[in-house]
Structures are given as C-alpha cells and as structure tokens.
Amino acid sequence: MNLVRHRYVTGIVAVLLLQIGFGIRLPAQIPPASAGFEGQRIAKIDFEPSQQPLESGELSRLLAVSPGQAYNAANIRTSIERLYSSGRYDDIMADVLPASNGLTVTFITKNSWFIGNVNAIADFSAPPNAGQIVNASRLQLGDPFDMAQIAPAVESIRKLLVDDGYFDPKIEPEYEYDQAYQQIRITFKVTTGNRARYETPQITGDMTVLDAAAIVKATRWRRFLLPGYRGITLNRTRTGIDNVRLKYQNSNRLMATVVLNGIDPDGRRGKPRITVNPGPTVKITTPGTKISKRQLRASVPVFEEHTVDSDLLTEGKNNLRDYFQAQGYSDVSVEYRQMEEKGGVTEISYAIEKGKRHTFVYLGISGNKYFDQKTLRERLFLTPKSFAFRRGRYSEAYVRRDIGTIKDLYESNGFRDVMVTSRTEDDYKGKAGDLALFLTIVEGPQYSVSSLEIKFAGGPSGKMNIAKLVPLLSSQQGQIFSEFNVASDRETIIRQYGENGFPDATFAWTSKPGTRPHTVDLTFTIDEGRQQFVRDVITTGLEATKASLVEQQMELHMNDPLSPAAMADTQKKLYDLGIFSQVNMAIQNPNGAEDRKYVVYDIDEARRYSITTGFGAQFARIGGSNAVTDLSDPGGAPGVSPRVSLGVSRLNLFGRAQTVSLQSVVSTLQRRAVSNYTVPRIFNWPKFDGSFSILYDDTFDVRTFQSKREEATVKLTHHYSKAITLFYNFTYRHVGVSNLKIDPLLLPQLAQSVRVGIAEVNFVQDRRDDPLDPHKGVYNTLNAGLATSAFGSQTNFVRLLGRNATYYKLNDKLVLARQLQIGLQPAFHIPATANPGDPIPLAERFFGGGGNTQRGFPENQAGPRDLLTGFPLGGSALFFNNTELRFPLYGANINGVLFEDAGNIYSSIGNISFRTRQRDQTDLNYMVHAAGFGVRYRTPIGPLRLDLAYSINPPKYNGFPGNYSQLVQCSAAGTCQASAQQINHFQFFFSIGQAF
User: Fold this and answer.
1) According to CATH, where is 3.10.20.310 located in the chain?
2) Less Cβ around it within 10 Å: N or C end of the chain?
C-alpha cells in the first residue's frame, strides 16, 4: 500500500504575528495545507524526537488536538502556534500519516537554546577584566539564544579591547550545549598581545589659548619621571580628555569643547586625534556682592553643563536666591543679564540686592489638631535660630518644601482637602532683623473607607486565598482613606501575588462617595494572570564549591510557586557565604508562555586567596615607657604608638565555604598573630557557625607588665535572630608575665605564669539603627565565664561582664547616648600560694580606663596600683557609666559631643564604691568622674573622633622617682622613698568610631 505523507504548518498570518509578538523564527517555506484528511479520526499523536523540552502535562495543555478527535487543519495550526508561544522551540512541523485505525499526527520539533553561563578567558592584565568583557557581550542569562547574537557580541568586545589599548585582539567564542536544560555555555577566548602605549597626540582646532604642549601635559598621558607615554586604557583616555576640558574651564572657557576623534593604531602605539575649541571666555560676576567662587560654581549650573542658555541662567538665579535666603537675607532679589563683548568674552552678571539681613527666630504652626507640634516639626527643614544655625535655616524654597511635606502627611492620613498657608513677619516682636514664619493648617474632614470590595477580572473568585490577604491591607472598612494607602495596598497585593508565582498580576481601583459624609466606597480589581511554578533550579559556574552547599541555601525548589522574592533571598544567602564574587539569577525563557520555568543561578567564585594590610597609630596618653627599666610616668604621658597589620585568608576551603585566615598586628605596644578556621552553618545548622582559633599575643599595653599568651579557642556562634546573637566558646590558654614594674617583694606572687581553661557564653542584642554611628536603639551584651580546674585551669574564678547602651533622639538634632558596664570576677578554691586579698592572676584581671571606658584615665590606667611604683595592677570588679549628648556642630558632617564618664576598676566586689573623694594615696577604690567635649567628623568607615576630657577627681598615688635597678637596691635595704604623683586632669583621645 502506498502511503502519502502530508506536512502542515501554520499559515503566513500566524508566522508574522508570532515573529513580531514573540521574536520566534518559524519555517521560511510553508507547503499548502491539504484538506484530504479533514474529518478523519486521529488515532495517535507522536513527537519527533520523543524527548521533548516541555513536560507531558504542559504539552497536553498546549495542544489543540488529541487522540479520538476529528482531524482539523486549523487545530493543527493552533497547536503549532501554542507550542511556539512556549518559547521552547526553534522550528516545528507536523506530519500526518494514515493508519489502520485513523491518522497519526507527528510533530517534528527543533529545540530552542537559552543563554547560560557566559565567561571570558584572557591572556592579558586588566583592564578590562573578565566581568567587563562578559558585560560588553550583552548576552543576558536565561534569554533565548540565536547565533546571530554572537557577531555583535564579538564586535562589542573588540571595541572594548581596542579602547583599552589592545588593537589587534583575537576573540574566539566556544560553545557547550546542555541538552537537559537547553542551555548553552559561551566562552570567549581572548588573545591580545601587549597593550599599546599613547604617542604624541595629533591636535587640531584653535590652540591660541592652550598650545599643543600644554594640552599634552594636561592629559597626563606621559609617564612620571620616565620618558615616553603610559599604556592606553579607556579610563585613562576619558580622564585625559576631561583634564583638558577642565584646563579650559579654569580659564573661564565654560563652553570649551574637547573631542577625541579616535586613536589611530601604529604598531604598539596609538596616536590620539583631538579637536579643541576653546569657545568664548565666560565671566560670571556678582557686582557689589561677595560670594565665594566655590559657591558660585555650585549655584550656577552652566559650570556643570558646559553651556549657556536661559534655562540654566534662570536656575542659577533661583539657586542664588535660595542660598542668600538661607544666609538670612529673606528679601533678597536676584536678576541676571547676559552681554557679548567685542573680545569674544561673554559676561553674565547677576545683580543681587540682598536687602536687610534677618535672623529666623520663630516658627509658628497653628490649626493642627490631628498631629502634634513635635510630629510636624521633626519633618520640617525650616529651623529657627539655634547653636548649629546662628541665623536659622530659612528660604522660600524651604517654605515650599515644608508646606508640601505637611500636606503629604495629612493627605496620607485621610485629609484630602487639607490646606497649608504661610505668612512671614519682619522685625518680630519689635526686634529689628528678626523674622518669624507662621504656618496655618486647615485640616478639613478626614475621609474613611465605608466599604471595600475586591473583584477578580477572570471571574467571581481567584486562585489565591484573598481572605489571608485582606488583613494586610491598609484600606479596610472603617480605616483611613488616602491614595497613599491605596498605593501601599497595591504594592502589598502585587508583592503577595508575585511571591505566589503570579508574575503578570495587575491591580486597578475605583472609588465613589459612601453613604455617609466623608466616606468612600472602594473597589479593588485584580487580574491574576497565569500562575507559574518552578520546574527546576539550575546552578552553573561552580568549580571548587560543592553543589550541596549551594543547595542548602536555596529558598526555591521544584514545584514551588515562582517567587521573585524567594529568588532574591537565595541570592542574598549565597552572597552572605562570602565566597562568591557574583551571583546572577534569571528565569530561563522569561517571555515563554509555559507555566513551569527553570530558575537559573550563574555563580562566579571569588578569588580564594586574599591579602590585606593596614597602617595606623594610636594618639593618647600612654602610661609608662617602653623601656623595662624606666619607671617614669606610670600615670601616662602623651605618646604615639604606630601600628601595622597584615592578613592572609584562604576562602572556600574544601568547597564548603570554610575559611582559614592568619591575622597579625605589630606595634610598639603589641605583637599579635591569630590563625582562625571558620565553618559557616556547621553541621548543616542554618543559624550556627563554628570556628577554631590559635592565638599568640605579646602585649605591653598595660605597661605594668609584659604578657605572653598562647591560646586556643573553639567557638560556636548562634544567630538566634536578626537582633540577637549568642556565642558559646571554650578557651585554653597559657599566660606568662614578665618585666613587671612593681615592688620586687610582690614578684613571686604576680610574676607566675598561669594556665587557664575557661568556658564562656556571650549574649549580644543589637537594635541600633546604625552600628557605626547610632542615633536610636539598644545594645546589650553579657559575658559569663567559668574557669575551673575541671577544665585544666590552674586558677578558679567566675567572670560576669555586662553592658547596656541606649540611644535616644531627643529631637531631630540631639541624641542622648548612655552606657553602663559592670564586671565581677570572684575567685574560688584559692590556692595557698595566691594572695587571698587579690587571688586573680595579674593577666586575667580587669583593666580599664581610656577612650572607650573612662576618659578621665589614660588607656588601662584605672583602678588599684602598686603602692611603691604607682603602676596599675588591675582588679576583680569594674563599674563604668558613660553619658553623651551628641549634636550638630558645623555643617552636615561635623558633630559635637558633651560627655560625662564615671567609674573605676576596683580591687574586689566588696570594694565597689560610689564615693567621689579619695581618702589618701593608697585609697584607689572610689568613683572617678570626668567631663569633656568631643568632635566627630563623619566618614564612610565611621566618625573620626577627638575627645578632650577633664578629670574632676583624679587619683593621687605613690610613684618611684628612680629606675628599676635603684628600686631593687632600695627595696632590699628597705630604704625606698615614694614620691607623690597624680593622674593628669587633662586627657585626650583620637580614634575612629564613637566611644560606644
């Protein structure tokens, strides 16, 4: 029997529609459809190849034909159109064959490909780096791939390389196909050779203002102190052209143009071609009115835009008016005129009549009933005269801004008809120059929601359980009605639908007057669109990292609703591991009409080795000399301690995000090295991190003694919540004490080395708004430790150290900060060789005083002292209380601090005293108070801090006027004579970060 095969595909109209609407390529040749099989029964539907990119359920949903139906060519066309709309196919054809029991319809398909991992392998040094090359390709993760995209990508990469001095690059794309997920991995192999250098530019145009030599010098393309030119880079080229333009602008050539026409390759050199046009000299003057050049440039935008037009000059006029009003000239008038002079000079003159200078002394607000004065004032920019603003902060622009702020506040709370008017009063209360502003608020009625109806565009009900969504809305029956609340509800609804896999959900609302006055009937209409689910999660780019580690961070899994929020949470968790330099995420085939989609994470692993260095210094009063034999200045003298740090880290050890690091610090006070091994999410516990560290520390910061510490610590960090962290650690250490500057008779007891095994629990609660510079919130810590012979310790004691810090915003400028620290360290099972009055080993005692505890003392100079030499001995208890009032001092970045510190280190718990008077020079267990003033300069890494403190009742003590050998001699003879000394009343501290 002769079988006849008929092939059907979609019609011309469908082809054009799909190509325009979906960007899908369909067959160029379409044989005419035959009606010979119309009406016959379809017995079987096959696919070739049998393994299809769509799941069986998705195929059944998209096909318009099924076995048992009558054959219809229109249904075949519809099926092909739907399959194309899924985005999973590059080509589809349909074959129809007669069979014994009907027809067999076979869909012959060719799969599409999607962009997966894109990377670059280069044989040269950056710039550009691999990431810049990949970005230049403009190939987006998850998008459909077409080989036609490669040529533009290669050309874009080539231009990038040429701009960076690689004139003859070879770019070879390579492809790896992943049949399982229809992904294609693209690798650009780049070979460049050496980077070209600049050569003397070819300069054309008007060079009467700057000659060629001056232009070349301005580019800074020549090497410093060496002959020849530097290597070509895109950034260096742009900077050079900008430098030439700036050179003209500094000569008042504001309209100068400097154009780079290209860089002509010449072997391993490149000749830039530059065209310059100085343009006219532009002079902007303010005759009769003094204003700094910097402020004039900031106010008149022609300096920034490099052109002159009426709009920019008008904007400059308004800016100058606002500036002078802010300086107290509320009646200032500003006008400008532009005139052309013969010599090619364009002069722009701003005529400024400042008028009488005012001081903004009073801001009155009336008519407000719903909001109190504090609520309104804390939102306003207008500021009456204060310590920080000697003439207040006032301008018409500020008035307009604050009126808008008040109206927005009221409208967001249902006052749709609110009106705010302003009135100024000169010579307020009869005092010449004083200015008052009165804001009058007419609140009007407050509108509320009479009823809320939620409709669905697709029918009477939706796929989501709307009952769970309604409690999250602001616009509920009886609640305030405002468009702000409706906008918030829209965001809530769209976000909830997005989290549940409805990417195309839309929201619309209408309103009408309610049955009662000042009420509104609301209607929300939701078009849910189709719901999408996760078909699978694809991870690419991993080389050293274990796939199981990444899987543990996933918030999305197969069959989950496709939630962008969950995708972003996963991305954040992956970044939080600290081992990935980039985590790209995408939905594969984003525009395809399939309900189950692949989610793709393409990961770049960070460099596994890193080296950090740091240099710094400590400026403060430092107690004692570095020299072991020098017993001078036990109470501290001005000094500088330089500091150098070096750190080496190995990330992602064993591919499990584990880290090994070595940190070292060297200064005149300390030599420290610590090796740390960190295991995040230890034992697959998501909230626990583990670490093991080994420490060597040789410290002389107390200056009474030199301690050498060898220590090993095992720590478990519990991230209990966002605000609360717990640390469980066990430490085993050996501490040796040497070079003591104390009475030789005490040496046998205090110079002994000691072995300590201690288990500790640390509780940290951090609710501060900004850890570097807090303005509100709470910071609590509690350390509880137990050292006992059961842990192999040679000394037995309990350590309790608590801290409570709070921060209050008194108003929009003042912050009250306070801190309380209490420490107790009782000993038990005291050995016979220890001093029963002070049994804690010297190196384990509390030491304090200084910039972060009590600024009435130099660093670590608080508490008990050796009665002969005067050097501090530390104690078994501490109490410190700090209070600060923080306020603006000058401008936006300089703040001031008034502080009062109280507290001390005490020899024992029973000796804690709030007494403020020292009985005699041997009495050091009393409360020391200090007051002072500080300056904070805001920087990105925290405020620079300078504190000047005055100790109100500093301790007096006995010191020894000689050196250590003299001390030994007189001690043996019993003839030592102490000299009366005292902690200096004045102390200073310079560091980074707030005191607490």
Assistant:
1) 6-111, 113-191, 197-277, 281-353, 359-442, 448-527, 535-603
2) N
According to the model, what pLDDT value does residue 28 have? 32
Amino acid at 881: N
Q: What is the model's pLDDT at position 255?
A: 83
Concatenating the DSSP letter of every residue in 41-102 gives BEEEEEEESSS-SS-HHHHHHH-S--TTSBP-HHHHHHHHHHHHHTT-EEEEEEEEEEETTE
Residues of the chain with pLDDT under 70: 1-35, 341-342, 388, 618-629, 747, 833-837
CATH architecture of 448-527: Roll (3.10)
Give, in order, the Cα–Cα distances in Å from 975 to each of 220, 628, 961, 967, 969: 73, 22, 13, 9, 9
Task: State residue 15's pLDDT score.
Answer: 37
Which three-class secondary structure state does DSSP give residue 972? helix
**In the CATH hierarchy, which top-level class contains the domain 197-277?**
alpha beta
For residues 244 and 246, give the distance between their C-alpha atoms in angstroms, rounded to a whole number. 5
Structure tokens at 579: 């081992």
What's at 354, amino acid-wise?
A: K
The pLDDT, as a whole number, for residue 35 is: 55
The answer to whether the CB of 449 falls within 8 A of the CB of 524 is no
Predicted confidence at residue 32, as pLDDT, reads 44
pLDDT at position 973 is: 81
107 near 92, Cβ under 8 Å? yes
Side chain identity at residue 231, one-letter code: G
CATH annotation of 113-191: 3.10.20.310
Instruction: Specify the length of the chain in residues.
Output: 996
Structure tokens at 564: 């962008």
In sign, the C-alpha dihedral spanning 785, 788, 793, 794 is: positive
What are 399's two structure tokens? Answer: 């008035």
Class of domain 281-353: alpha beta
For residue 315, the surrounding DSSP H or E stretch is helix 310-326
Q: Is the full-model pTM beyond 0.90?
A: no
Pairing of strands 596-605, 580-587: antiparallel
pLDDT value for 641: 79
**Superfamily per CATH, domain 359-442:** membrane protein fhac (3.10.20.310)
> What does the pLDDT read at residue 745?
72
Tell me which residue of 113, 146, 108 sits closest to 9, measured CA to CA: 108
Q: Kindly state which CATH superfamily the domain 6-111 is placed in.
A: membrane protein fhac (3.10.20.310)
* Type of residue found at 226: L
